[in-house]
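Q: Given only this backbone (384 positions), what sequence would you predict?
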């Protein structure tokens, strides 16, 4: 083994040691949103806002569950049609008529967006303007809520005095590519935004998962409203940062029961999802892109490279060191793999998933440079 190989091995091992012990236990599959129990003595009014762009296919599977929430207080649901051309608004109105939940429901068709707003944030802004409520639930059209979803989030917020509570939906994990990439996606997200840090009022870290975000209206007003983040591509985390920066308390956790029905049967689905925002996460910095690639190669690529080099060259030292480091990384990843109901052996696939995510990040940069960044259902919103 050469000196360079020894240096890289020690560097990778030390980096993982620092991450494992000093980055908010990001590798744990928690915290998890729990059942509300008895809940508060008074249930505040909630308005659920669903921004929807060309979601006619998925709404019949998700909207009824939101309308049938067992929330004891006043709950209104607003679906904002974000310039759809597939009949989303009509489908939503038909679902509401057939469900007959008794919950007030309204479809908004806002006019032309004001300059500087992303489509989703403009849609959420219209929902905010439509009703007066103590809390607003921002939830995506692909999210299937269990009956207790709103109740659980409100109870948590009332109990802990939260200004923003976010449940990261359990993503679909059925196809080959989903099983390879989805647990890794959540693992990487938690490494970027350690939930323990985000939930600590003493920390400046903040994060939210846009599929299910409950925000207190007074906190939204205190941060200056959604207008202050109107151009953000990663809008959920931008919202959490703005709320926390203005003095609010936030919480983010995983959920076993709040689920996304968005399917990614092929590699392209996950690839496009990540490429839409990855370069924005890096601040559109080429230097950060290069540093991220180098870091990913060291953290995730070096161990299997050393292992296979040892096997090919008949070198037991390389083989043992590579296997040991690869195993250690897999052990850190295994809680998330198990959370998604997969065999712990699948944790060994993390280096291969990481390589694909590197490719997605470079593609994200290319899209930004060529004027197609932030592409969502035919609309680019992030470009130089």
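A: Predicted residues:
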């Amino acid at each position: 083994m050469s000196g360079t190989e020894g240096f890289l091995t020690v560097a990778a091992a030390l980096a993982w040691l620092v991450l494992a012990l000093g980055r908010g236990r990001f590798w744990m599959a928690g915290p998890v949103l729990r059942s509300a129990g008895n809940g508060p003595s008074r249930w505040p009014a909630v308005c659920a806002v669903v921004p929807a762009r060309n979601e006619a296919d998925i709404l019949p599977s998700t909207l009824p569950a939101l309308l049938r929430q067992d929330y004891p207080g006043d709950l209104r649901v607003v679906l904002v049609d974000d310039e759809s051309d597939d009949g989303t608004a009509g489908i939503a109105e038909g679902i509401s008529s057939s469900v007959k939940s008794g919950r007030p429901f309204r479809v908004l068709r806002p006019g032309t967006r004001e300059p500087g707003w992303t489509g989703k944030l403009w849609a959420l802004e219209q929902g905010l303007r439509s009703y007066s409520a103590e809390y607003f639930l921002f939830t995506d059209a692909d999210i299937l809520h269990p009956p207790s979803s709103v109740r659980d989030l409100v109870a948590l917020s009332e109990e802990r005095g939260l200004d923003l509570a976010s449940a990261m939906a359990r993503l679909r994990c059925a196809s080959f590519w989903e099983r390879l990439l989805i647990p890794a996606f959540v693992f990487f997200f938690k490494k970027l935004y350690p939930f323990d840090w985000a939930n600590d009022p003493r920390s400046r870290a903040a994060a939210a998962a846009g599929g299910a975000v409950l925000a207190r209206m007074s906190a939204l007003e205190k941060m200056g409203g959604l207008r202050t983040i109107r151009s953000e591509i990663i809008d959920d985390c931008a919202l959490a940062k703005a709320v926390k920066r203005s003095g609010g308390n936030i919480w983010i956790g995983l959920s076993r029961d709040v689920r996304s029905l968005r399917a990614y049967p092929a590699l392209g689905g996950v690839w496009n999802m990540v490429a839409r925002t990855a370069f924005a996460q890096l601040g559109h910095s080429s230097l950060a892109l290069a540093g991220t690639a180098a870091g990913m190669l060291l953290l995730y690529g070096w161990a299997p490279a050393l292992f296979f080099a040892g096997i090919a060259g008949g070198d037991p030292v390389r083989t043992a060191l590579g296997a040991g480091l690869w195993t250690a990384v897999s052990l850190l990843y295994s809680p998330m793999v198990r959370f998604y109901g997969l065999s712990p052996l699948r944790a060994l696939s993390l280096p291969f998933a990481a390589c694909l995510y590197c490719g997605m990040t470079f593609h994200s940069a290319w899209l930004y440079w060529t004027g197609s960044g932030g592409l969502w259902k035919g609309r680019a919103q992030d470009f130089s």
